Automatic annotation (TrEMBL), chain A:
Listed transmembrane segments: 18-37, 57-83, 95-116, 136-154, 175-192, 222-240, 246-266
UniProt-recorded name of the protein: Manganese ABC transporter permease
Domain of life: Bacteria
Stored SUPFAM superfamilies: ABC transporter involved in vitamin B12 uptake, BtuC
Coiled coil, from the record: none
Membrane topology according to the record: Multi-pass membrane protein
Biological classification of the source: Bacteria, Bacillati, Chloroflexota, Anaerolineae, Anaerolineales
Main location as per UniProt: membrane
Similarity remark: Belongs to the ABC-3 integral membrane protein family.
GO cellular component, one term: ATP-binding cassette (ABC) transporter complex
Organism: Leptolinea tardivitalis
Subcellular location: Cell membrane; Membrane
TrEMBL record, chain B:
The organism of origin for this protein: Leptolinea tardivitalis
PANTHER family given in the database record: IRON TRANSPORT SYSTEM ATP-BINDING PROTEIN HI_0361-RELATED, METAL TRANSPORT SYSTEM ATP-BINDING PROTEIN TM_0124-RELATED
Name of protein: ABC transporter
GO molecular function: ATP binding; ATP hydrolysis activity
Domain ABC transporter span(s) in chain numbering: 18-249
Length: 276, 273
């Protein structure tokens, strides 16, 4: 049993991969609580796809892929805010238009690169075992910044998410807080690029938080439980992918989906099969 | 911080009052409020009465800054709207929040104290004490750790009233607080209004119950997009005013005014909010 756990860790790439997966699981599942509570699942998925042109352009010019992704996702987050702000079109319409456009642009750019096939699959589905030491440092710094901001803005984020009307009467800068939250979600997606890829990051944002929502009745506990589920899914998923030889990102997401199904069925408060 | 203290200082000197001057709000080319002017003196308790869609909710949303007037100006404490820091509390019609949100009753009420603790500081002993007293005043101490979706309509209304009290407002706005709640919650609301009267809190309450407005409030604003009448109940509750507000919905029975809420006469009139 012990060797079953330690054996994969003899490889340095597994150590780095595990660390990266745990950090990403943590960040995604914490910020994911707001994604779930504010019904932003579609937005999360859209932002994830929208970073593709940023990555492609960075690749084309030999720049840092993460910085390219970062710039693209923040631009799209601001653009969605801009288009839906004046109320002429609904937010989900703005998201639908922009994310398809960004995805198309990304694919167009990538298709001009001759050897795109390999890199594209890594971007779409992640390559946690290819995480380098410098990637790990970038992921850690971003994760630290995101979690600190979530902690600092915990109370105002809670108020704007629960009761925007109260936020207005209390004169909270609701618009700026909403934009900050969008940027934090964008940053989270960028940190997840290496582990689960843009195809599956939405699942990491939504699924652990959705399970935690079923298991708790306070935001602070929801965040803690969600973080636990996120980390557990990442660790279990990575081990499963090692032993069963399946893609690591999908293994992580499938584990968290199983946890969600169990929560849905057996949650003591809200489960459909609860004993009470 | 210094700025905030300054504002607090000013507000404790100047009597709270609301000045609405020539305010209009247009929705889809129709006026929800049509050149309304009125002024509420410090400590007055006013009922805002009118048919559905007459602009009552619009008026309250203007006063808390949720919407902005298309014409005219609003001043609170003789300051333009937006400068009034945190002296206005608002209890909206309650279906506007997600009851599944993971918060407890106590946490919801503590949100009303946000301006006093804020981003960095934690809620103080004083904040906690004010929240506890607010829950006690509305008889919901036992529900402190309940989730919102476990509460009845009346209990929910008490939670939002308690939160408004915890804000320690100079002005309290309540939108249809008597709609669909049990009698004991109505009574608790009136007891609260009596206490607020002693504390000189200015109160505006919207209702479509004419008799309650006439018997329980010091002044009535009668609204149907335009300001039809404003004054003491006896001055406002005249047949010509009520007819202008309610039109064909109004019946006079032995000198008492009754409003038929079942069949609004003109369906195009009830399209706002």
């Amino acid at each position: 049993m012990i060797t079953w756990i330690t054996q994969p860790l003899m490889y340095e790439f597994m150590q780095r991969g595990l660390l990266a997966a745990v950090i990403v699981g943590l960040v995604c599942s914490i910020i994911g609580c707001y994604v779930v509570l504010r019904s932003m699942a579609f937005l999360g998925d859209a932002l994830a796809h929208a970073i593709l042109p940023g990555i492609a352009i960075a690749y084309l010019f030999g720049g840092n892929l993460m910085i390219g992704a970062l710039v693209a996702s923040i631009l799209v987050a601001l653009a969605i805010g801009f288009f839906s702000k004046h109320g002429t079109i609904r937010e989900d319409t703005a998201i639908g238009v922009l994310f398809s456009a960004a995805l198309a642009l990304g694919i167009a750019i990538i298709s001009t690169i001759r050897t795109y096939a390999v890199d594209l699959s890594h971007i779409l589905f992640g390559d946690v075992l290819g995480v380098s030491s410098s990637d790990l440092i970038q992921i850690s710094i971003l994760a630290f910044v995101i979690i600190m901001l979530v902690l600092v803005f915990y109370r105002p984020f809670k108020i704007i998410s629960f009761d925007p009307v109260l936020a207005t009467t209390l004169k909270l800068p609701a618009e700026q807080l909403r934009t900050l939250l969008l940027i934090l979600i964008s940053l989270t997606i960028v940190t997840s690029l290496q582990t689960v890829g843009i195809g599956l990051v939405a699942a990491m944002l939504v699924t652990p938080a959705a399970s935690a929502f079923l298991l708790t009745n306070r935001l602070s506990r929801m965040m803690l439980v969600s973080a636990g589920i996120g980390v557990l899914s990442s660790v279990l998923g990575l081990y499963i992918s090692y032993y069963v030889s399946i893609a690591s990102g999908s293994a992580i997401v499938l584990v968290s989906t199983l946890i969600f199904i169990f929560s849905y069925l057996f949650s003591p408060r809200k489960g459909i099969l609860r004993v009470s | 911080m210094g700025n905030q203290e300054l504002k607090e200082g000013i507000f404790s000197e100047i009597p709270a009052r609301i000045d609405i001057s020539d305010v209009s709000v247009i929705y889809n080319n129709r006026p929800a409020l049509d050149h309304v002017s009125l002024s509420v003196p410090h400590g007055l308790q006013v009922a805002v009465v009118g048919p559905n869609g007459a602009g009552k909710s619009t008026l309250f949303k203007l006063l808390v800054g949720l919407i902005h007037p298309d014409t005219g100006t609003i001043q609170i404490h003789s300051q333009p709207l937006g400068d009034d820091a945190y002296c206005v509390a608002y209890v909206p019609q309650r279906e506007e929040v997600d009851l599944r949100f993971p918060v407890t009753v106590q946490e919801v009420i503590m949100m009303g104290r946000y301006r006093h603790y804020g981003l960095i500081r934690k809620p103080s002993q004083n904040d906690r004490e004010i929240v506890r007293i607010a829950m006690k005043r509305l008889g919901i101490q036992k529900l402190a750790n309940s989730s919102l979706n476990e509460l009845s309509g009346g209990q929910l209304q008490r939670v939002f009233l308690a939160r408004a009290i915890a804000q320690e407002p100079h002005i309290l706005l309540m939108d249809e607080p008597f709609n669909g709640v049990d009698l004991s919650t109505q009574e608790a609301t009136f007891e609260l209004l009596d206490e607020l009267k002693k504390q000189q809190v200015t109160v505006m309450v919207s209702t479509h119950d004419l008799n309650m407005a006439a018997t329980r409030f010091e002044a009535i604003v009668l609204l149907r997009h335009r300001l039809i009448a404003y004054g003491k109940p006896a001055e406002v509750m005249k047949r010509e005013h009520l007819a202008a507000a309610f039109g064909e919905q109004l019946f006079m029975l032995d000198g008492a005014a009754l409003v038929d809420h079942c069949c609004p006469p003109d369906s195009t009139e009830v399209n706002h909010l």
